[in-house]
Amino acid sequence: MSLVLSVAITVTLVLYALAMVIGLLRIVRGPSAQDRVLALDFLYIVGMLVMLVLAIRYDSEMYLDAALVMVLFGFVSSTAFAKFLLRGEVIE
């Protein structure tokens, strides 16, 4: 791996970590439940991006599979949260 790519990956991971801290603050201090759900969606998307950057860094396909599973679970959970916030129940 070249030096430029290594530095770019390191900077990217640090910025993603900073974004995750900001998302966690929004979850803790969010004024409403909708803000917290949106912050949770943001966190799983940033987590998926971290997995993709790690896949590039370590040249491993295992991280790609983990990112796919993370996004699938995140989509299902955000759909369930949205339905719960709208109707007050998840299963009808």
Describe how the helices and strands are arranged.
Elements: H1 3-29, H2 33-58, H3 62-87
Question: What does this molecule look like?
Answer:
It contains three helices and no strands. It is mainly alpha-helical and 92 residues long. The protein has a single domain, classed as Helix Hairpins (Orthogonal Bundle), CATH 1.10.287. The longest helix has 27 residues. The protein is elongated, with a radius of gyration of 16 Å.
How many E-type strands? 0
Second CATH tier, the architecture: Orthogonal Bundle
Structural class per helix/strand content? Answer: mainly alpha
Order of helices and strands: HHH
Major sheet details: none
Name of the top-level CATH class:
Mainly Alpha
The number of helices is 3
Taking Cα atoms only, what radius of gyration do you get, to the nearest Å? 16 Å
How many structural units, i.e. domains? 1
Report the helical percentage: over 70%
Low-confidence stretches: none
Key terms:
3 helices, about 90 residues, mainly alpha, Helix Hairpins, single chain
What's the short story on this structure?
Helix content is 86%, strand content 0%. It is an all-alpha fold and 92 residues long.
